[in-house]
Amino acid sequence: MRVLFWLIIAGFAAACVWLVWYLRRRLAERRQAEDARAAAFVSGLIPAQPQPTAPAAAAPAAGNEIATQKLLFEAAHKAGKAGEPALAVQLYARLLARYPESAFAAQARAEAEAQKKKLDSARDTAQNSG
């Protein structure tokens, strides 16, 4: 009877170890898929080649482009303050993809990195608690 009891305990322990291994493997696969989707999204935002603009047409549109840059930057900043780091990173990426030489580029890169750190720490916290 004791041998049967210990066999059941050993089987239960083996099942628990297998379950933990299986769940960790699935989590790693999900992370890889998530990273691949994020990379595909960001690479879709970054243009392959800069599009040439005519100098005569660029002058009147320059004020409009600066307003668009400022609007994107402010929207990303507000999203970050509102507790939406994923949206903020997406908006900063869009700003940097459309206007890589913008006056807001350096600050946008720094803010995007800060928001990415928030996302990573939130993801780590969720994994540790869950």
Oligomer: single chain
The whole-angstrom Rg is 24 Å
Large-scale geometry:
rod-shaped
Mean pLDDT: 83
Helix content: over 70%
| Poorly predicted ranges | none
CATH class label of the largest domain: Mainly Alpha
DSSP helix count?
Answer: 4
Query: What's the architecture of the largest domain, going by CATH?
Result: Up-down Bundle
Overall tally of structural domains: 2
Structural class: mainly alpha
Span between N and C termini?
Answer: 38 Å
How would you spell out the order of helices and strands? HHHH
CATH topology of the largest domain: Methane Monooxygenase Hydroxylase, Chain G, domain 1
Beta content: under 5%
Work out the number of β strands: 0
Largest sheet data: none
List its salient traits.
130 residues, mainly alpha, Methane Monooxygenase Hydroxylase, Chain G, domain 1, 2 domains, 85% helix, rod-shaped
Explain the overall architecture:
With 130 residues, the protein is mostly helical. It folds into 2 domains: 1-44; 59-130, Methane Monooxygenase Hydroxylase, Chain G, domain 1. It is 85% helix and 0% strand. It has 4 helices and no strands. Helix 2 runs antiparallel to helix 3 (85-98) and helix 3 runs antiparallel to helix 4. The radius of gyration is 24 Å and the shape is rod-shaped. It starts with a helix and ends with a helix. 13% of the residues are buried. The mean pLDDT is 83.
Strand-helix topology:
Blueprint: H1 2-45, H2 55-81, H3 85-98, H4 105-129
Helix pairs in contact: 2-3, 3-4
